Amino acid sequence: MTDINEQLSQIVKDNKVVLFMKGTRMFPQCGFSARAVEIFKRCGVDFKDVNVLADPAIRQGVKDFSNWPTIPQAYVDGEFVGGSDILLEMFENGELQRLLGVDDGANDPDLAPPELTVTDNAKAQLEAALKDAGDDVLRFEAGASFDYDLFFGPKQSDDFQVEANGVTIHVPRRCAKRVDGTTLDFVDGPDGQGFKIDNPNEPPKVKNIMPKAVAAMMEKGDEVYLLDCRGDRERALAKIEGDHVLDAEATVLDGVAKDAPLVVYCHHGVRSRTAAEQLLAKGFTNVHNLVGGIDAWSATVDDSVPRY
């Protein structure tokens, strides 16, 4: 056994739950690692986080050790479990909770049905759709990452049947606590009409925002912190007037309210999403990613900004 394998073997032996990830539990460096952290938090278990970015030998070694090509990687009781997608699937079907020895509450005989609110606009849309549903029922589900499904499908034996504004909604028991207190609405938005789901249990997420929407906020004088996460070389090529440089420690936001509207941008909107996730981890709750980055800004808002 190589030295790195011995090191990895010792880590998984000494800790009941281990997550090899990009970043740390406090500051995940990719969306998949952030999702894995959130899943373990929702299971209510402690875990050992190992930042593979801090040690190139571990970053490659853990892939060889598990014979699994991607990060993050989770181990429970010394056994490899899988990556982010597998953790999510196991969490959804309760297998992860059983493996960890925790109870998701789905089998609690005293589990109460969730309280849901359906607005009149949403009711009208749902009742219109129900006419073509046949024998299917209206279902509402929410995953561990609060990815929602509102659809027509077969009735399940363990469903809660919730009445809200004259609409019957079927909710799986495993989702009951997660969706309790949710309001379903139907609204007109900048991207067209659609259902709006307001769930008080949902943790803050990075929200996408279009360049024109940011420009409109700035033109009206609304409070918005436009943050450039690119490096000095790219910034010398092009920048957006009125922005701020976002460094690794986010010192530019010292003293800024945690609910202040933040918009992060990069070249095309990929790196900025990771930077925005890090701001969520720092406790900011109103964080946006500029869709298309500065390139889209130049194309749709201000063509005086050079494209590169």
Provide a brief overview of the structure.
By secondary structure, the chain is α/β, with parallel strands linked by helices. The chain has helices at residues 3-14, 31-43, 56-66, 84-93, 95-100, 120-130, 176-179, 211-220, 232-237, 271-281, 293-300, and strands spanning 17-21, 48-51, 73-76, 79-82, 116-118, 137-142, 148-153, 160-164, 167-171, 182-189, 192-198, 207-209, 225-228, 244-245, 262-265, 287-290.
Explain this structure to me?
This protein has 308 residues and is α/β, with parallel strands linked by helices. The protein has three domains: 3-100, Glutaredoxin (3-Layer(aba) Sandwich); 116-198, Hypothetical Protein Aq_1857, Chain: A; 207-300, 3-Layer(aba) Sandwich (Oxidized Rhodanese, domain 1), CATH 3.40.250. Helix content is 33%, strand content 24%. It is built from eleven helices and 16 strands. The chain has helices at 3-14, 31-43, 56-66, 84-93, 95-100, 120-130, 176-179, 211-220, 232-237, 271-281, 293-300, and strands at 17-21, 48-51, 73-76, 79-82, 116-118, 137-142, 148-153, 160-164, 167-171, 182-189, 192-198, 207-209, 225-228, 244-245, 262-265, 287-290. Strand 8 (160-164) and strand 9 (167-171) form a beta hairpin.
